[in-house]
Design brief:
The chain has 417 residues and is of the alpha+beta class. The chain has a domain at 25-94 and 122-199 and 291-372: 3-Layer(bba) Sandwich (FAD/NAD(P)-binding domain), CATH 3.50.50. The protein has twelve helices and 19 strands. The chain has helices at 36-47, 72-79, 84-90, 129-142, 188-192, 256-259, 262-272, 319-338, 345-373, 377-392, 394-404, 407-414; strands spanning 25-32, 52-56, 69-70, 92-94, 96-101, 107-111, 124-126, 146-150, 154-159, 164-168, 173-181, 197-211, 225-230, 233-240, 243-248, 283-294, 298-299, 302-304, 310-311. A hairpin with a 2-residue loop joins strand 17 (298-299) and strand 18 (302-304). The termini are far apart.
Amino acid sequence: MPSGPSYPSPDSARTPPLSLATTTLSAPVAIVGAGPVGLCAALELDRRGIQCLLLEGRHEPATDLRASTFHPPTLEMLDTLGLTESLLATGLRVPQWQIRLHATHERALFDLAVLADDTPYPFRLQYEQATFCALGWERVAAAGHVNFQTGVEVTDVGQDDEGVQLTVADGRLFRADWVVAADGASSRLRQLFALNFEGLTYPETTILATTRFPFEAHLPGLSWVNYVWADDGTFSLLRVPDRWRVSLYPRDGESVEQALEADSIEHRLQDIVPNPAGYEVLEYRPYRIHQRILGNYRHGHVLFAGDAAHLNSPSGGMGMNCGIHDAFNLAEKLAATLHGEPRSLLDLYDRQRRPLAREEILAQADTNRRRMQQRDPTWRRAELERLQGIAADPAAAREFLLRSAMIAGLRKAAAIE
């Protein structure tokens, strides 16, 4: 099993000094990491006419199982880059999602149609992160203001009052006025600054597996996104265009290593729907769940975004979306700063995005996780009835979905000055 990211413990960040070596390449902005966050930051800067370096350690986009949900405001943002049309062409629209009891198939069904007056995209879109990154790599490679460098691993960083110098593994140096740290959960830049990544790691390990088995033909009333209470725990079923993604958990007393064995995954899937022919598992991966956030997203001329700045439970599908929202907010403010606005505008990025992540995204994801981890039948029954009551009331459902679809939080953040 792969180990989780390591987190430095010091409470304050160091400010690394600059090297005196010769700079190889320079730009007003350097972005470290070409996942969804870095790609969106680069494309938004390109749209605003800002030259940037995009530095990525890989030579090809990642293909492993990661996020798969795009929420309505994310689709609105991506539409400004001309990306949403491509996503809609092959992605799976999810107008309804549900929380359900597996034993009885009772469910609370949330219909995003109540958001039709709030967004042009009143649905979730299931579209895998790997596919999005492949599309994004094509777009940045063709972008006129983006110098896209792959196979570039940052090994050191230094800064002064005017900008930042990045050292990479082959000894080259890159200089930028500003750096966007979009290098993910194990952020090298966060480690180089020795930043305290406050929070916790949840005790359970999730095992994500994919299969083409047609669960929808066997479980009545299934939506394309389902969070399910089972007698011995919980699981989720999320559909992407050509397969189901199933989130499983080890049985009581079962180690993670045992849970990753083919027989164990097979047994867990058989518990969901008995299948005499057996399950074809296309791919699987384990992952730990974290809830962590930086104390400040800005450290001099280095600004953190996405998983480099915050981590949350994937329950609710908000992590990648929150990072993309970071990217758009930050790119707008970087462009304004480079066009002559005060540098203090970048402190507004922190004031708008960090409280939102802490009070909305992390808090909601934690609530979602805790809800599904509950095993007491009486509690589950009461919670299901409460959720059914919300879903049946259009006004209450709209308020609930404005928050779970990340619209309310963005409105709240936009009002911060």
